[in-house]
Amino acid sequence: MASSDPLSDYRVVVGIDFGTTYSGAAYGIVTEQEVTDITTWPRQSGFRYPKAPTISLYNGDTRTLAAWGNAARLERQKAPSNTNYLLLQQYKLYLDDSLNGVFKPIPGGFKPVNVIADYLREFHNNVLTEMKRGFAQQFEGQYRYCITVPAMWSDKSKQAMRDAAILAGIINEDDHHDRLMLISEPEAAAIYCEKTCEQFDMKDGDEFMICDAGGGTVDLIVFSVKMDSEGNRQFKESTKGMGKSCGSAFVDKRMRKLLRSKLKKLVDNIPPAALENMMENFIDTLKPSFDGTDALFMNLPLNLGTTEHTNPDIGLDEGVLRFSVEELKEKVFEPVVQEVLALVHKQRQQTHNLKAIFTVGGFGASQYLQSRITEEYKRYNIKVVTPYRAELAVARGAAYFGMNPTKVTTRVPRYWYGIDITNTFVDGIDPEEYKIVRRDGSIRCDNRFSVFVKRGEPLDIDSCVTQKYTTFYPCPTECTFFAANTEDEPRYTLQSGVRKVFHFEIPMPEIPDAVEGEQIELIIKMYFGEVELRVEAVIRGQTYRVVCNFNV
């Protein structure tokens, strides 16, 4: 049963940017419309990065979380090598449907949703502790939340994120549904850029692109600006957002491979702790500063266990390892950056009046990525801007969105959405194996795709798609929804490019004057303009909030 707490009772909005490599948070008191960052995390080192590492350390014997964030890495490094620990990283990627089969299962048989929930539980506890140090303390218990998700995620992935938040205790299952809101990461970043970036001088009809390059995913959406009657900017999605798993974690993966190739010429067995020390140096310091013009240098850690301090073959001189600009470009940065540039190019092709590209996220703050995008688009007179504290843009934007959820007025569906129905059978077009005869004697075609939402056709956020169907009393009705990524409207639910996305059951209410077998009108209402799908069913004036099962 849904909670009766009105949303107006929630005085504070907490924005959570759960990321592949780092996670951040910000909060704002609704009446003040200002945002405060959470930048203090347990076991931070001298380099105080304002986000917490998305890392979890599990005790392999008890299968319980032993440490999270900075502590997870530190505890693993100092533990004896025979300690039964599992260090889990980048588990957000397991929610990306497009990567199914790319990664091996999480070690230890852990389920992604449970690992994410364990992390979020500790992360959230730290956020609450920090909030209580400020003015938000007086509103304890009056918090609502906005969690960001990649634009490329499926509805099933979004539901998994909501499930993890409930398991983590961030909200309760019987809380008002909108106590937890989801927003796409580029949308949150757009709100932040408009709110705080001086270069955001967009006028009515102008378009701007958000390139949210994080640790795991790179998400892009182009928005057009529409001025309302009071002179305030509102945003409309003007392209189908797209994304790909080609974030900075893939730069790290290539750097790790390059490091191994060099270090194995010094030692037969590379100590894991030594390799991790060098990778931390790369991730925290060297990667953000690399701009494609100067070589990078890295000291060999003492725990590498080598007596060799000079080796020209690998660029080692007196204990300092040199990485040339050429090898960093060719082997580490450029292959990943090329994937990002391809995404930017595809988005630009869909635009008409693009004025600016805003790069946000941890990878978005990379000097090399910024320089490459600028190099590609300066000839088009398109400015490339990285806002202040780009790594916090998504968390801050989520908090701002929670205080003003109507900033984005239109979204563009990435798929065709519809249901499986029977329709009039058309000889010569429909396959014979789909032909069925109903109880009233009519000849129908089974497995027809009834379109609710057209791919690429803009939808207002409050738009409701309504379809009327008939069913027979007193049978309950089951409904499975399908999504298609085909260019043309799909005709059948079994054709290539169509997949099931969720399923629900609609109970038949008791109707005193109805007789068995009587046709009953069924109205299905779907709200596709919101970040999450919302479904309602109406039978004889009774409205049901439908619970969707995305595990189909």
Automatic annotation (TrEMBL):
Molecular function GO terms recorded: ATP binding; ATP-dependent protein folding chaperone
Keywords, alphabetical: ATP-binding, Nucleotide-binding
Organism domain of life: Eukaryota
Gene3D superfamilies for the chain: 3.30.420.40
Protein name: Actin-like ATPase domain-containing protein
Organism the protein comes from: Phascolomyces articulosus
